[in-house]
Amino acid sequence: MANANEEVVIKVRGLVNIMGGNLIHDHLDLDVYRGEVLGVVGGSGAGKSVLLHSIVGLNRPAEGHIEVFGEDPTPHRERPKNSVQMRWGVLFQEGALFSSQTVAENIQVPLREYTNMSQELMNEVTAMKLSMVGLPQDAARKFPSELSGGMKKRAGLARALAADPELVFLDEPTAGLDPISANQFDELVKDLQKSLGLTVFMVTHDLDTLKATTDRIAVLVNKKIKVGTIDELRKDRDPWIQEYFSGVRGRAALAS
Amino acid sequence: MIDTHDSTAADARAALRMERQGKIGRLIAEGVWTIRNSALLDAHLRQLDISGFSEIAIDGSGITRLDSAGGWLLVRTKQELEGAGKRVSEFILPEIYAPLIHAIEQEHNAPPVEMPEHRGVIRVLENLGEGTIETAQQGYRMLGYLGRFTIELMEAIFQPRGNLRVAALFTQVEEIGINALPIVGLLAFLIGIVMAYQGADQLRRFGAEIFTINLLGVGILRELGGLVTAIIIAGRSGSAFTAQIGTMKVNEEIDALQTIGINTFDVLVLPRVMGLIIALPFLTFYADIMAMIGGAVMCYFDLGITVPAFMRQLHEAISMNTFLVIIKAPVVFASIIGLVGCFEGLQVERNAASVGKLTTRSVVEAVFLVIVVDAGFSILFSILGI
Question: Same domain, yes or no, for B100 and B143?
């Protein structure tokens, strides 16, 4: 692989997942390098979310070995000072904002947990994060139930980015957004990746997003994973991958 | 002025110092300017002594790592210096961080967010006022809902047009009534035992053990049986109504029903409330019998009163009126529990927290109203001499 001498942030070896008696992942290997944007695609039920959940330690795999920053990502009962949880941020599909807290309080949860910032500085940083993800400042005092779907995603991203993580997981960040918001989201991910040097692990179905933001793409197909750039994958013989990139939608998105 | 800060990791130090050259200052930032060091850096930056300088250069060329928190501290310092009328002659940073600083400077010029104040007398008053208005509105809505229910019920009975869903009704009767038999039966049996035991203990002092049976007859049949059954069912079915209807509301299922053109009252509220009204009197009757069996068992073992003797004494203690009480009160209790449960379910907003909140409220309100109405019944019946 071209970037073999780069630092591996996520290392998956021989991952096997079985869900409800079905084999989902059959000995997957995956490396994600520092500073890259990796898109993960696959058909419905191909195990994209399961893969993400396994990497962030929410799902204990049947077999295999996962390292994030060289550490086991399973949640510890007692959190060590430099745990991986502090170094990553996760944006869940619906934002997963804490419904009893305002947006500002949501964003400050990781700050409170991991830093000893003064309330003043936290409020400043919160305002900055809101600007970064393109939310209006008056969203800070709103509760998640008062936000639209797109705003929830942005607020979720602001929370994921609050403690300046090195690695961000995005689960379908543009699903359910209008094309303009989706484009803005792509721009945002690219900007943040450029300015903060983030590593991004993004599960998405959005071909435009894949084209616009990702460096490499991982395709989950037949319980295995194939990784490559768009151009490399388009030459792949697998019928699902062919259909995906060369179907009507694929051609339209990639032609532009 | 030199400040060096220790941080959690030894290799992740950040440093900040001010060099003075006459009226020109040079603020030198070095090391790891990340979120982990931000609290200390922030504290020192806030105490920065800038008096006597007319021009200040910010030199961050020694910064080895910078993230958005560190970037913000630098940008904020620059903005504050400019705000204080100082000239910021230079703002040097390693080239790779230019996009980050650019993003912060260009896209962010809003003041810090304001967090709501959680303390203070004003807040208490505010809560009190909010609570009062909320309660009044709740009462108003409940009244409207009661009216609607009455109309729908009368229509269903007097102008039936298939709006009473019989299958749904029987499913509810099964769920509310038959499935509750074990728990209600066991609890009533135990209450019978406890009442008989405690009653016998007290009455024995007067040599009036036989009146334990009167105590059981009056205490359980007139009061406790109905009340306890209603409270169990409020906890079991009233909460379920709120949670079911509330979850449907969160999932937009209620909206879907309405757009299809189905009367939500007919399919959701009527079967539940009617099912409860049918099931609860039977459940209460069953609970009373179980409690009597419990009492009889205890009387036999504790007092040596045989079952035929127990029956004879019980027959004297109670009358047909007692039976009417057994049947009447549960119908009212069932209406209260069912109406409150469905009403609170329909009040759920489109978020998950709301379901839990309103389920709790539904049970509390139902139990409260049941006990209040029960007290009212007791007084009424004693005035009427029933």
Answer: no
Which value does ipTM take for this structure? 0.75
Token representation of residue A5: 């001498």
Shared domain for B269 and B322, answered yes or no, is yes
Residue B126 lies in a domain: no
Residue B115 to residue A82, Cβ atoms within 8 A: no
The CATH number that applies at residue B50 is 3.30.750.24
The span from the CA of B243 to the CA of A152, in Å, is 25
B200 and B87 part of one domain? no
**Which residue in B308, B176, B188 sits closest to B244, CA to CA?**
B176
Q: What is the pTM of this model?
A: 0.71
Residues B284-323 pLDDT 10s? 999 999 999 999 999 999 888 888 988 888 888 888 777 7
Minimal C-alpha gap between A27 and chain B (Å): 36
Residue of A81, A94, A121 to mutate, interface with B, max B Cβ within 10 Å = A121
Q: Rounded CA gap, B375 and A46, in Å?
A: 61
In sequence order, what are the beta bridge partners of A68?
A: A10, A71
Name chain B contacts of A120, Cβ cutoff 8 Å: 42, 112
Residues of B with Cβ-Cβ distance to A197 under 8 angstroms? 96
Whose CA is closest to A64, among A131, A123, A6, A11?
A11
Q: How many beta-carbon pairs below 8 A join chains A and B?
A: 99
In chain B, whose CA is at the least distance from the CA of A114?
B36
- A105 has a chain B CB within 8 A of its CB: yes
Specify whether B211 is located in the same domain as B337: yes
- Number of structural domains (chain B) is 2
